[in-house]
Amino acid sequence: MTSSDHAEIGARLRRARTAAGLSLRDTAGRLGVSPATLSAVENGKTAISVARLLVAAETLGTTASWLIGEQPERPPRGPRTPPPDRTHDWREFPPLALDPVLSAAIDSFVETGYHGATMRSIAERAGMSVPGVYHHYRDKQELLVRALDLTMDELHWRVPAARAQGATAAHRLAHTVEALALFHTHRRELAFIGASEMRSLTPANRRRIAASRNEIQYLLDDAIDAALTESGLPHADARTAGRAVATMCTALPQWFRLDGPTSPEHIATSYAEFALRLLGLPEVQDSVA
């Protein structure tokens, strides 16, 4: 990438930051860099990593493609905002406002699997006629995609919100893992579908959802890199550790039960500690305060 490319990315980053109404210092904190480093990026004097570019796009409400100039006509749209029926506190999980058909479909996919569920069984569970279900949803695939989109929408605002509250890179990593663990316990049904039904998507839908999932993995990888750098530790196994931590969280729906002996909050704090230990990082204080 040339210096002119760096300058173009920096200019677009500044434009997106201004459109989002964020200061240089506030944005730098969310990205886990110093204001001086962000200023250098915006002025084209230093490069920005792919992982951090994805964080910037998510924070500023645009896309990485727009920031690097692949979508020249796409303006920044401001930061991603949680839907009105969701809390802005990433640790709180109020009930989802689901329509009866989608709620029935989620229950059916968890109980019988995508291929075991039918539009008729979903209609019966929703207390509706089959034509009534088709009035709201084109087919079973659309219901699966909607369920997976719900998952990704939540993760894409909860994880950056969690990171933004970290005072240090280690705190931001702990918060990232905590946010992932909380989602996979509080939203167990959605998370279970996400872990088990990617294979049931059409190729086009699978590519889109997989790309969205990869962005969350990149956020975790970036948090790990920053924490290791801050502590002066080697990065040799950072990517392997990142996959291990992610898998640890995505496996939670396989065994966790809300009516079991352990709370989501206890699991989340424990998993954050496990992640730090796996990487050889010291425990952080008040990582869940």
TrEMBL record:
Residues 65-88 are annotated as: Disordered. The keyword DNA-binding applies. Residues 118-137 bind DNA. GO terms for molecular function: DNA-binding transcription factor activity; transcription cis-regulatory region binding. Residues 95-155 form the HTH tetR-type domain. Residues 13-67 form the HTH cro/C1-type domain. Keywords: DNA-binding. The keyword Phosphoprotein does not apply. PANTHER family: HTH-TYPE TRANSCRIPTIONAL REGULATOR RUTR (PTHR30055), TRANSCRIPTIONAL REPRESSOR MCE3R (PTHR30055:SF237). This is Putative transcriptional regulator, TetR family. It comes from Nocardia nova SH22a. The lineage of its organism: Bacteria, Bacillati, Actinomycetota, Actinomycetes, Mycobacteriales.
